[in-house]
Amino acid sequence: MQIYVYDLPTQFNENWLVDKRCSNHLFAAEVAIHRILLSSPLRTLKPDEADFFFLPVYVSCKFSPKTGFPSIGHAPRTIHSAVSLVSSVMPYWNRSKGSDHIFVATHDFGACFHSMEHFAVAHGIPEFMQNSIILQTFGERTWHKCQEVENIQIPPYVSPSAMSPYMLPPPQVRKRNIFAFFRGKMEIHPKNYSGHLYSRGVRTAIYHRYGRNKLFYLRRQRAEGYQEELLRSIFCLCPLGWAPWSPRIVESVVFGCVPVIIADNIALPYSHVLNWSSISLTVREADVPRLAKILLHVAATNLTAIQKNLWRAENRRALLFLEPLHTGDATWHLLDLLSRKIGRSHDARSPQAVTTKK
């Protein structure tokens, strides 16, 4: 398998890196994958030999001055400009109608490009992208308009360099004296935005029911020492926000804290290689009132087995976009899944045949 990376003008990507948040926030897989592909042994400089074409457009690097969060309303227009450019100077987009072209859409509801599900579904995936392959963090087990396209679900981005200072000693030898942990947005009176309840009310329910429970360490704002809190925790709560997925799922695995996923119908990345049921817990949103009992039962029965599975290094590696490419890391699994898409139609060279740094 070979991938051609378009050399787009810098206003589509590199210029945005002046803001350090661009390459480090939860949507930054669009930056990491581009960087890794540039030095990948699967990259080709000869587009006629390529199986896939990658468009490096950093659409989530524009931050709202009011909220500080990425603003993605411009994304369809920006990506369409990139497509118009490459299709005007090279034949490959028009030749395949974009079916062998890859985009990254690591936003709440993927290539629907809106953080609110109602609006995301109403907008849908832009028509010009509907023949292409979308790399997205969003995923649900059943039909959803925002994944009604050829897609690969990838992990949300967590910076490997930000994790490394905390990984010695390794997670399995850390003293864990926090039973259940959550730090983040947890509204006492959830905001009602266009008729939609934040987190479907789940985070508010957790705060109201367990805010004074000594088993639970709940904080409504992030602060310095967050990584150390993860390393001190046995269970890490990963409730949905506006979208079902959360970078907390990756952070929990990396720091050896059992992810407690509270997001009905969520699909999890790389389930073909990660046995999520052996390294995490899934709790129904309706079962939040029973959450303490559920966690106490697990702690008394099979916690040791879950932790043993969770602490395997290959599980952490599979969820991190390492630079350069490492065997078994998040980009490696992405390339493996891409190779399977072409393997049925013609002879393809998969990542297993490529020597990568372990």
TrEMBL record:
Q: Which InterPro entries match?
A: Exostosin, Exostosin_GT47
Primary location group? Golgi
Keyword line: Golgi apparatus, Signal-anchor, Transmembrane
Where does this protein come from, organism-wise? Sphagnum troendelagicum
Whether Transmembrane counts among this entry's keywords is yes
| Exostosin GT47 domain residues | 2-295
Task: Classify the source by domain of life.
Answer: Eukaryota
The membrane-topology field of this record reads: Single-pass type II membrane protein
- Cellular location of this protein? Golgi apparatus membrane
Q: What is this protein called?
A: Exostosin GT47 domain-containing protein
Which family does the entry's similarity section mention? Answer: Belongs to the glycosyltransferase 47 family.
* Pfam families associated with the record: Exostosin_GT47 (PF03016)
